[in-house]
Amino acid sequence: MLQSLRTEVYEANLELVRRGLVIYTFGNASAIWREKGLIVIKPSGVAYEKMTPADMVVTDLQGKVVEGTLRPSSDMATHAALYRAFPEIGGVVHTHSRHATAWAQAVREIPCFGTTHADYFHGPVPVTSHLTREEIEEGYEANTGEAIIRTMSGLDPLACPAVLAAGHAPFCWGKTVTDAAHYAVVLEEVAAMAWQTVTINPAARALPDAQRDKHYFRKHGAKATYGQGDC
After folding, report:
1. Which of 213, 205, 200, 191 minimizes the C-alpha distance to 115?
2. Which of 13, 145, 188, 218 is deepest in the core (most CB within 10 A)?
3. Domains recognised in the chain with CATH numbers
4. Is 0.90 surpassed by the pTM of this model?
5. Catalytic residue among 24, 48, 119, 156
6. Residue 119: active-site member
């Protein structure tokens, strides 16, 4: 199981490169083995072209390394906080993709302007508040996770699988790390569409709730009709 999880995390990290969401050593992906309480995550500062599945670092739910010779991603504490808070999720991805990061830097949520957005996110993609000086100076990465958790209060993590960390960049998640990487790709696309939408029409309004719900629930939930199902 651990070996297959290492491979899945490795492939998810490479998918971020293939999709143009990360450059150099930006970004990271992780997955959790819930039964054992173990997290597998990209090592810190290692170039993607030099990584192997064996380089993925294994930690416990507090971020303490239990297997591997490399240091885990510098965002380890954020990933761990999200896993502890959201038992539904199995993978986390962090990128600095251009358009989603621009919205994070503007400290603006991404409105649900259209059906492409609604297919994946049931409402706007929220943005955190800026961290305080104290939160930045002590436990920055863990406090980033806590800011995301506060922002997600009252929301379903699987219906809103991304948050923009103010002044920083997006974090995405899903039932698996492969799903989380998929959401990161889609998030970047809808972030670009939203930017172009407000450029064309600064007064653009969010999609009506009925149309948003129609598109979201076609793909999600017990009554989903999209795709071929189990046939």
Report:
1. 213
2. 13
3. 2-219 (3.40.225.10)
4. yes
5. 119
6. yes
